[in-house]
Amino acid sequence: MSVSLPTPVPCVGVVCLRGDSVLLIRRGTPPRQGEWSLPGGRIEPGERAADAALRELREETGVAAEITGLVDVVDGLFPEAGRHYVLIDYAARWLSGEPVAGDDAVEARFVALGEVETLIGWSETRRIIRMAAAAR
């Protein structure tokens, strides 16, 4: 039996790397509220995906970065929250700013890449970070 989900929502995520660390946020809203994740969010109508990624990064963390490439596209299926996101994940190189939680994030900080496996619960997020780190 399949679960009925609403129309998929296009969203972006950003793997912002600074040296051997990655910028993470602690989610303040469902799905996965309270968990560590990548900064990101919905693409606004008429907004390019890469522009949305940089905007969401600024809004959630106060950090500026440059996009270095597309990592992957992931379906975020969250039936318990009644949500289906199409997540377009970009790699980015940190340019300036120290993380300060804003928008939907309750915490933001750079984390050593070695901590990602134990800190992040969703396997897809861990995979995306590994891919971005390996490609730099």
TrEMBL record:
One Pfam family this sequence matches: NUDIX
InterPro entries: Nudix_hydrolase (IPR020476), NUDIX_hydrolase-like_dom_sf (IPR015797), NUDIX_hydrolase_CS (IPR020084), NUDIX_hydrolase_dom (IPR000086)
Record flagged with keyword Nucleotide-binding: no
Domain Nudix hydrolase: 7-136
Cofactor(s) this protein cannot do without: Mg(2+)
Keywords, alphabetical: Hydrolase
Family per similarity comment: Belongs to the Nudix hydrolase family.
Protein name (database record): DNA mismatch repair protein MutT
Lineage: Bacteria, Pseudomonadati, Pseudomonadota, Alphaproteobacteria, Caulobacterales
